[in-house]
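FORM 12-B: Structure-to-Sequence Request
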C-alpha cells in the first residue's frame, strides 16, 4: 500500500504536465481507498494482479508459480480483458515487472513505459527508467515525466485527500482541547515478521512512553495487528487496530504530532502530512541509511542496523525512547 502512495507524486505531475489527459490508475482493491478523492485521477479501476503484493500473491515474486498465475491473469482475467477494451495510448508500469509489462502489451497500449533493472519486463516497453537502490522511490517514479517530454518539477511527497468529515472525526477521536498532551501514533503492523521491529519492543516502548504524562498514544493497524500491543487501554492509550479503515487511520495520523512505525504504510502517511516520524527496522534490513535514501522523508528518522559500520543489532527500546523524547522536546 505504501507503493501506491509513493506513486501519487507522479500522478500529480502527469496531470499538471498534461492537463487535458485522462489519467486512469489500475490498483489492487485493497489499496484503492487511498486514492479516493484524488483530484489528479480521472478513473480508478481494479487490477488485482497476483504478483508483487502480499494480498493475493502467495508465492515468491520470481517463483514459477507466480510466473504461471501472472501469465494466466494477463491472458484470461476479466480485469485484463476490460483493460484491453479501453484503448489507452500510454501505459506506465511504475513498479517495473515482467507481468506488468505483459499486461500493458496485452492491453494493446502502444506507448509503454517501464523500469529497467528491477523485476524484468523492460524489453516489452518503449522506454524505461533505470532502477537504483541509491535513489528515492518517489523521485525515481518522477523520472517518467522527462520520458514523456515534460521537465516539470514535482515534490516527491505522497498525496492523499481526506474529506472534511474524516478530518473532523479524527480530531474528535483525539479529543484534545488544549496543548496539554502531545499526540503520538504507533503503528506496529508490517507485512513480514523479519522486517518488523517486534511486538514486544513496541509494547515496551509504549509502556515507557506512558511514563511521560503529557503523551497521548493511539495504536493503528488492521485486524491482524489488534493483539500486537497487549496493553490495557486508558485515557492516554487507545488501540484502534481493526476498528478504523485505511482512510480513518490516515486521518488519525494527519492530526498527530509524531508517528512511530515499522517500514510500512504509516511511514508514508506521515510523510504525506509532513508529520515527524521514527521508522524502526527489523532484522532483515542491513542499512538504515540506505532505507532512508530509498523510502524516507525530510522530517523522518530511520533506525536500524548499519552492517557496513559494524552495527549488527536492531535499535533498542531505550535508544528509540531517547530519540522520541529528544524530538518531542521532553528532556
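FORM 12-B RESPONSE
SEQUENCE OUT:
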Amino acid at each position: 500500500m505504501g507503493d501506491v502512495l509513493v506513486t501519487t507524486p507522479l500522478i500529480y505531475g502527469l496531470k499538471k504536465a498534461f492537463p487535458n489527459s485522462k489519467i486512469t490508475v489500475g490498483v489492487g482493491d485493497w489499496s484503492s481507498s487511498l486514492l479516493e478523492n484524488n483530484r489528479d485521477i480521472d478513473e480508478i479501476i481494479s487490477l488485482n494482479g497476483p504478483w508483487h503484493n502480499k494480498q493475493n500473491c502467495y508465492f515468491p515474486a520470481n517463483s514459477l508459480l507466480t510466473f504461471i498465475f501472472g501469465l494466466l491473469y494477463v491472458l484470461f482475467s476479466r480485469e485484463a480483458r476490460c483493460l484491453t477494451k479501453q484503448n489507452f495510448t500510454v501505459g506506465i508500469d511504475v513498479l517495473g515487472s515482467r507481468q506488468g509489462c505483459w499486461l500493458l502489451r496485452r492491453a494493446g497500449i502502444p506507448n509503454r513505459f517501464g523500469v529497467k533493472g528491477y523485476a524484468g519486463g523492460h524489453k516489452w516497453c518503449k522506454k524505461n527508467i533505470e532502477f537504483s537502490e541509491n535513489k528515492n522511490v518517489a523521485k525515481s517514479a518522477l523520472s517518467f515525466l522527462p520520458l514523456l517530454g515534460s521537465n516539470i518539477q514535482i515534490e516527491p511527497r505522497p498525496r492523499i485527500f481526506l474529506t472534511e468529515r474524516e478530518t473532523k472525526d479524527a480530531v474528535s477521536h483525539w479529543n484534545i482541547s488544549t496543548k496539554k498532551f502531545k499526540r503520538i501514533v504507533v503503528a506496529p503492523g508490517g507485512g513480514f515478521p523479519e522486517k518488523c521491529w517486534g511486538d514486544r519492543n513496541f509494547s515496551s516502548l509504549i509502556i515507557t512512553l506512558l511514563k511521560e504524562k503529557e503523551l497521548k498514544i493511539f495504536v493503528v493497524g488492521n485486524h491482524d495487528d489488534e493483539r500486537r500491543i497487549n496493553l490495557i487501554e486508558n485515557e492516554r492509550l487507545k488501540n484502534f487496530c481493526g476498528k478504523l479503515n485505511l482512510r480513518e487511520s490516515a486521518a488519525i495520523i494527519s492530526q498527530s504530532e509524531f508517528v512511530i512505525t515499522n517500514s510500512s504504510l504509516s511511514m508514508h502517511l506521515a510523510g504525506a502530512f509532513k508529520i515527524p516520524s521514527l521508522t524502526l527496522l527489523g532484522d532483515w534490513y542491513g542499512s538504515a541509511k540506505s532505507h532512508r535514501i530509498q523510502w524516507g522523508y525530510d522530517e523522518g528518522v530511520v533506525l536500524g542496523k548499519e552492517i557496513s559500520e559494524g552495527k549488527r543489532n536492531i535499535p533498542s527500546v531505550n535508544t528509540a525512547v531517547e530519540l522520541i523524547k529528544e524530538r518531542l522536546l521532553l528532556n
